[in-house]
Known about the structure:
Elements: H1 2-9, H2 14-24, E1 27-31, H3 32-38, H4 45-52, E2 57-61, E3 67-71, E4 80-84, H5 97-111, H6 117-132, H7 142-151
Parallel strand pairs: 1-2
Antiparallel strand pairs: 2-3, 3-4
Helix pairs in contact: 5-6, 6-7
Amino acid sequence: MRGQVRAAMGAPHYAPLLLRMAAIASVIKVSDEDLRQLFPGDADPLTTLRTLAPQADILLTLRAHGMEWLTAAHGGQDDARITQPAFAVPVADTVGCGDAAMGAWLASQLQSPGAPVQAHLRQAAAAAALTATRAGAYAGTQAEIDALLQAHAASPA
């Protein structure tokens, strides 16, 4: 599937579609790898994305380095950036980790809308970590996410 997605990013119709979607997005989930594919040769693809979508909050996944939440700049201020390190787990396969992170982020937002951003990021990082421990794109259950978070309660990751 990854190869097909990467090929689609290079299709002639993709750039105009990306511009239209970025202009109306309120949240964008993107990985560091996605950024390099979306903006090949760009020395600072995150800044390019931010220019295209100044209104959007960004969930940036960074593979083994965790993830960052960048809030849209308001009133001339720079983005606020909140970092969540990855949880250290034995890795079997990384396919699906970004999808699991986004799904857990959304579920956390729906289940605990008043929780701090860091709590949502921890849920997302735990889901990604659990997915990495399995061959194939198999996300963990909420009970497994909660158990991983409990086991790592004393540390940010």
